[in-house]
Description:
Elements lengths: L4 E12 L2 E12 L3 E6 L5 H9 L5 E4 L11 H8 L12 H13 L15 H14 L4 E5 L7 H18 L2 E5 L3 H7 L2 E5 L5 E4 L3 H10 L3
Parallel strand pairs: 3-6, 3-7, 4-5, 5-6
Antiparallel strand pairs: 1-2, 7-8
Amino acid sequence: xxxxxxxxxxxxxxxxxxxxxxxxxxxxxxxxxxxxxxxxxxxxxxxxxxxxxxxxxxxxxxxxxxxxxxxxxxxxxxxxxxxxxxxxxxxxxxxxxxxxxxxxxxxxxxxxxxxxxxxxxxxxxxxxxxxxxxxxxxxxxxxxxxxxxxxxxxxxxxxxxxxxxxxxxxxxxxxxxxxxxxxxxxxxxxxxxxxxxxxxxxxxxxxxxxxxxxxxxx
Length: 218
């Protein structure tokens, strides 16, 4: 199991300004983890994701509610996000081109690469963002509310895609959500920011960990 370890987080503290929300946050991120992050509104889910982003290279966070600006195809949008990995002329290496194609295929976007992103469904657009992270060789992908405002069909489609990515690539994913029942179906581990001010993490008693958000105990 030690070889599967991507990042060991110990005694992390998060808060707003001088206000501490949670301290003593400790958990491991391993290859293939699909981790659901849950908590009440304002509990600090986005703050925690941003903190994790700063801890290690190859961690990519996809924020919530990215605007779908007309004038870019799906393929162009994904390629644009990969611009940091391009050379001085904006060209990707052959290996990077292969990674981009694989990411598009993995997210089932093959037939949408020439479609304007403004015409994509919210679920399709979310998958395009995930594809861009995969194309950039992310070892950990952080998703802030990836199923927000999606209908039931698209929620399940995105969550199933996340679980499939973890299994196929070994990449770890942490996604915050309020869709607890659907999220549990895809997750292999749960992180809960609980009402009693405690942080809990479990891969075995995930439902009990989720219950701790509201009851303040597990």
